[in-house]
Structures
1.
Amino acid sequence: MIKVHCLTTGWVQIKQHHQLARFFKRPIRVLDVLTDTKWSPHLPIGCWLIEHPEGLIMVDTGESSRANDKGYQPWWHPFMQFCERRGVKAEEEVGALLKARGFDPLAIKMVVMTHMHGDHAGGIPNFPNSEFILSETEYQGIQAKDAVFNGYLTMHYPDFFYQNIRTVNYKDGAFENFEQSTALTADGKIRLVPTPGHTLGHQVVIVDMEDYYILIGGDASYSETYLLNGDIDGVCIDGKKHQESTAKMREFCRRKPTITQFAHDFNSEKRLNEKIFTKVK
Ligand SMILES: [Zn+2]
């Protein structure tokens, strides 16, 4: 029996043109975010726990409760200093949320990272016993010279993280309409598929619940509405790939009832708990 929980590790505020891009070309899009004076509402920062017979699996780790401490965000980075606000109380960090629900963070077998942006990787220190599953491309991203500039806060990764990384490159064949996938569990019920665009190495997790799927989408879209509209976010690395990935996810939802989950979507938890499927025209 598989069960999925949606956890919220505090909130983040981003610029409105970050949440929803007005332009397609990246330099113009990013400039539009940097010069935007309007903030989004407080958006949730989601992550997920999957109870599976082969062990407990996390998808993403949410934000750190230290994210607003002086010096946590790089002082020289205009985007992190001026274009994002975060609010994560100690009791809202992922380790505390798991304990409050009766789960031991030290017992988590695997942590799948949809991607390595700060508000998804901030809770990594809570999981010293876990194996971290990253796409090969995202792993290269955190090792690149410009990693911090690109939103990967590598200075906060604990040593054990690097020792416990497993990379995947989707060699387990096609899955539904995705040409490539990796089976994460021996029973094949949990699969990873590449969804580049927001970052080049972004991946989503698909949980097979027998008569429906749960698609855990990280930042592959910022909300179900944006997914349905094919909208892109203001900071995505590759707008074309982002749109191709959301088109694939929409086609996936057409094939079989699917509950979609996104990290910054107000309604993720409600859709999961009330079993509300994503309706694609
Ligand atoms: Zn992100």
2.
Amino acid sequence: MGPAPVSVEHTTLNPDAVYLSWEVDGKFFGDGREVALLEYIYARPDLEQLRGDPEKVLQAIDDFARSVRGLINVGLMKGAIVCDIITKHKPAVVLELGGYIGYSAIMFGNAMKKAGGKQYYSVEKSPLFAAVSTSLIDLAGLRDTVRVVVGTGAEGTQRLYDEGLISQADMVFFDHHKPAYTDDLKLCERLGVVGPGTLIVADNMVVPGNPRYLEWVRSSVEKKREMDKGAEGKGNPNLQYRNRSISSWEPSGQEDAMEITECYGIEA
Ligand SMILES: C[S@@+](CC[C@H](N)C(=O)[O-])C[C@H]1O[C@@H](n2cnc3c(N)ncnc32)[C@H](O)[C@@H]1O
């Protein structure tokens, strides 16, 4: 792995933000709980108050995850950190890989909109989860700001690029298939979706961890040039990165960390 990040920050656990266990009969998601969530939300007596209110929709999702079944969302604790980053960085265009049922897309899309941003793209591999997400984003009143794209991270990014919808993103959020982070980042680098000025937020650096990804973003340009020589999927090793690690908590109550990588230049 490359050098340690330039700064490491810690946050404290908020017990009120902890969800029920994700694991039920050996399953962590995809056992019908996502459709049950949609039914739960649309059966709530306060449904009319949720319409057009992203914060209330997020609270309703949190209620479900605390009282019915745990969900693999980024959650309130890490979510608050990313919202803070969005408020400061003010991205106009955000690309998210791994949308699940739309929790992060609603939370971060809303934060981006409030900070003056234009478009949040949420790529999700499962068409079923993408349908749940689209419905909740619509309920939250964010239909014009957040667009859900069905496909893997690589397929979705390539399609958005080919259709001319995305060139360079101001922020990229990785929260999908952990072994795909590095290859999908390299694709973003090749296409110029990541370039000087882009901020990359990568979740789950501890749970379950991602040493290959950390090695790439924390390595010097010289080392990345070496690493890329024999590699099949090449990135742009000339991009200069500065890293911060923020320790926080999964909604399961487990300690985790996010890697915040700022692309600040290109080395000739
Ligand atoms: C941890 S969840 C995302 C949670 C979401 N970001 C949130 O906080 O609300 C990971 C999601 O990535 C999706 N996924 C898995 N492999 C993927 C891939 N290669 N490309 C895009 N999405 C993928 C899964 O279907 C799942 O919905």
3.
Amino acid sequence: MKERPIVEAMQRFYENQNSSFHVPGHKHGALSELPRAFKDVMRFDYTELSGLDDYHHPEEVIAEAQDLLAKTYGAQHSYFLVNGSTVGNLAMVYATCGEGDQVLVQRNAHKSVFHALELVGAQPVFLTPQWDEATYTPSHVSLSTVAAAIDYYPDAKAIILTHPTYYGVTNSEMIETIQLAHEHGIPVLVDEAHGAHFIGKGKFPMSAIEMGADVVVQSAHKTLPALTMGSFLHINSNRVSNDRVNRYLRMLQSSSPSYLLLASLDDARHYIGTYAHEDHQQFIKSRNQFVDGLKSIPSLEVIEVDDPLKLILRVSHLTGFSLQKQLEHQGIYVELADPEQVLMILPLLKARHHFPFAEIRRKIKSAVEKCSKQQRDKVEIDYSHDIEALSTLAVSYKKLQTAENEWISFTKTTGRICTGMVIPYPPGIPLFVRGEKITTNKLKMLADYLASGATIQGEHDLSRKQLLVLKEEKE
Ligand SMILES: Cc1ncc(COP(=O)(O)O)c(C=O)c1O
């Protein structure tokens, strides 16, 4: 068996020095006017040529590489995705839910999950997550909330969970939650975008695949050494049809997959598959030294979470956005900032790697010293708003398709039906979902987000302080 079938096939192709009379038009980079380093990479930007298999009908190297992927993660079937976890989430929802079907969904899901539910015209039942006091973020849905949801909605076609959260918080009740859903014949679909490294027998938190979930989607590009967009989808179930998932992946993904991406996925699978005990020990040792070093910096609060790759930094009087700016002045770019803190994703080092942790600690210290001289800009956000454990859309996706909308000042939107998503980004979890009723609490949170300098994606006109809402019908 080859170690990295796609990578090896591409290397053989390269060594043959073939002439290109096929797409892509840059002809192995020769026509490109990009800088040299880019062109060097383009030499490997192949397409589905003899010896390189067919992405949507794999029988050779892609099939071999996907088999290795399934073996590595202990799944029945696994797929390389070339359009991120986004397309994995779309495909798993399409494969399990239809128009009008009830679907249980964690309310702090990624926007791609909401988009999927809207595209299929499902009826989502939102499950409110617990609040995690350590990270000031919503985390997982409690087992009791899931039990109540199944009691009320026993005909639900699926339950969609996110595990771990963007901030690296895991769910200690995940196994029981999956078992409960299965006892009621409900498949469990897990967005594990941030957990592609969650394998390796005790080295990292357990993956939802090992815990018995039916479909699991992982962004390999987030924590493994894969190119951006490169992701995995795993199926480990007789409750979800592999053929259906495969059919939707064929429909939703490009017919011209990037081989650079596929090679990086093949390599990422090999990387995690060969992540040895010594690699893990060495990584944890250097990580812990780094964390201890950070903890000794005055005014810096360091928060550790379940996932050892994630680290949260806080300076008490400043927003995460201000801390982020100071870090960037020192050349340190973090994953995200929010009104409270910044989130770092540490590199999944192997024993052979040397990473300049000491120098990075020095730079972080300089940034924090600059922060100490800055005036307070942190806004007190009240996260304690009461939300019911279960909620539904006030207006169905079907009705929203044809409904008329209007722009109104966001201060006047309480009680109105939101028709444009409002998504603080990152982390990409919608504050307002299309079809939900707008509440005063949420508006207050939006105002706090804006006051603290957050970037808000979605369909809104917040520069003119306007939101898109359903036009009220005249009596
Ligand atoms: C929880 C979660 N799910 C899905 C996605 C989408 O992943 P991708 O960027 O691989 O499409 C993200 C992206 O940030 C995410 O945080």
